[in-house]
């Protein structure tokens, strides 16, 4: 089964040297599932010619905001609508979660509560999953027909499904413990307030449920089984 990865940004240079780029993190998360992968760097205007170029699709995170004026955003929004019309499975994470919401009629803005950084517990319908977060922006209003399936601290719309073919997540299942550590130390200082970095450091070694969510993403890509 071929998974098309739509890359919407690049990991920080220092982290790429150690961990690889964003598509590499997802390939590692979904290892062992008999997937083949192809990446299109849509952030650089490298787009697929159509939705039939992959069996299922995944949109990565990005440093960009979905409301910013970047050339790749309008055609990406149209491609999202094309994927939805095709009925093929689509997963979005962080920026991917947000751009799908925007493309389908939702509202995304900088959250007035500020940054969410590090490990948080998310409620998936009574089941708690611990995942790493790294964002200021949030999906504040869901598109018509969207259904929230998970919430977290100061992040109401943490995971959303659209019909039976789109599943999106605000936190990062692809960010494991080591990556989370390096984000805190190499990306955080001077960008994230010190008190939030201290909180993230204090929780950085606690276990994560990234593998559990990764397995659900894989199952969704294969079968469109709703994760919650």
Automatic annotation (TrEMBL):
Keywords: Glutamine amidotransferase, Transferase
Transferase listed as a keyword: yes
GO cellular component, one term: cytosol
SUPFAM superfamilies assigned to the protein according to its UniProt record, in alphabetical order: Class I glutamine amidotransferase-like (SSF52317)
Signal peptide range: none
Naturally occurring in which organism (per UniProt): Ketogulonicigenium vulgare (strain WSH-001)
Protein name: Glutamine amidotransferase, class I
Pfam families assigned: GATase (PF00117)
Limits of the Glutamine amidotransferase domain: 73-185
UniProt GO molecular function: transferase activity
Taxonomy, superkingdom: Bacteria
């Amino acid at each position: 089964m071929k998974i098309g990865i739509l890359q919407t940004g690049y990991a920080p240079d220092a982290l790429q040297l150690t961990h690889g780029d964003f598509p590499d993190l997802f390939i590692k998360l979904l290892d062992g599932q008999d997937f083949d992968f192809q990446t299109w760097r849509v952030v650089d205007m490298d787009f697929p010619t159509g939705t039939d170029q992959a069996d299922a699709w995944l949109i990565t995170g990005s440093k960009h905001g979905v409301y910013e004026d970047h050339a790749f955003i309008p055609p990406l929004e149209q491609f999202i609508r094309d994927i939805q019309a095709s009925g093929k499975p689509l997963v979005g994470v962080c920026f991917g979660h947000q751009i799908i919401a925007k493309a389908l009629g939702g509202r995304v803005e900088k959250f007035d509560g500020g940054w969410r950084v590090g490990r948080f517990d998310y409620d998936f319908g009574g089941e708690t999953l611990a995942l790493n977060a790294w964002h200021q922006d949030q999906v504040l209003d869901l598109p018509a027909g969207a259904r929230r399936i998970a919430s977290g601290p100061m992040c109401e719309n943490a995971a959303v499904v659209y019909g039976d073919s789109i599943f999106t997540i605000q936190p990062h299942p692809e960010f494991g413990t080591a990556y989370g550590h390096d984000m805190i130390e190499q990306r955080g200082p001077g960008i994230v307030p010190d008190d939030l970095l201290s909180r993230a450091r204090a929780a950085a070694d606690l276990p994560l449920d990234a593998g559990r969510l990764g397995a659900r993403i894989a199952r969704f890509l294969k079968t469109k089984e709703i994760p919650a």
